[in-house]
Amino acid sequence: MADRPIRVMLHSTPKDRYGRYIASLYVDNQDLGLKLIREGLVLAYIVYPFPTMSLYLQEQGLARSGHKGLWANKDVTARALALMSEWQRRTE
Fold first, then answer.
1. Phi and psi, residue 21, nearest 5°
2. Which of 14 and 78 is assigned the larger pLDDT?
3. What is the spatial distance between Cα 92 and Cα 85, in angstroms, rounded to a whole number?
4. Is residue 78 included in any domain, yes or no?
5. What's the Cα-to-Cα distance from 54 to each of 45, 51, 91, rounded to whole Å?
6. Rg for the chain (alpha carbons), in Å?
7. What is the layout of strands, in order, in the sheet containing 6-15?
8. Which long-range contacts (CB under 8 A, 24 or more apart) does 42-48 make?
9. Residue 51 domain-assigned?
10. How far is CA 24 from CA 48, 64, 71, 77, in A?
11. Above pLDDT 90, what percent of the chain?
């Protein structure tokens, strides 16, 4: 990936409460976060809304139902669901 251009798109809330940047990364015009979610390698962080959040959540559901990546392990799935519940509470 070192020889391919990477595009960073900051979200409407560019930083979280700790000062970390909130952005989407694109490699070859493909959303890297979405690719990782589809493979079950990461969770969609929903505390700060972003334009493709509904797509991320839809694809995350498909990865979960397909037992891809982290969703293949019961213990990791339980922890992921706990984190997602915590994040959901923060948005309410």
1. -70, 140
2. 78
3. 11
4. yes
5. 11, 8, 15
6. 14
7. 6-15, 21-27, 30-31
8. 43/70, 43/80, 43/83, 43/84, 45/87, 46/84, 46/87, 46/88, 46/91, 47/16, 47/87, 47/90, 47/91, 48/11, 48/13, 48/16, 48/22
9. yes
10. 12, 22, 23, 24
11. 76
- Max Cα separation, the chain? 42
In a domain, 60, yes or no: yes
- What's the CA gap between 46 and 16, in Å, rounded? 12
Give the span between the Cα atoms of 14 and 9, in whole angstroms: 9
Instruction: With cut-offs at 50, 70 and 90, classify the pLDDT of residue 4.
Output: confident
Task: Scan for tokens 């037992």, then name that residue.
Answer: 67
User: What's 47's domain CATH number?
Assistant: 2.40.50.90
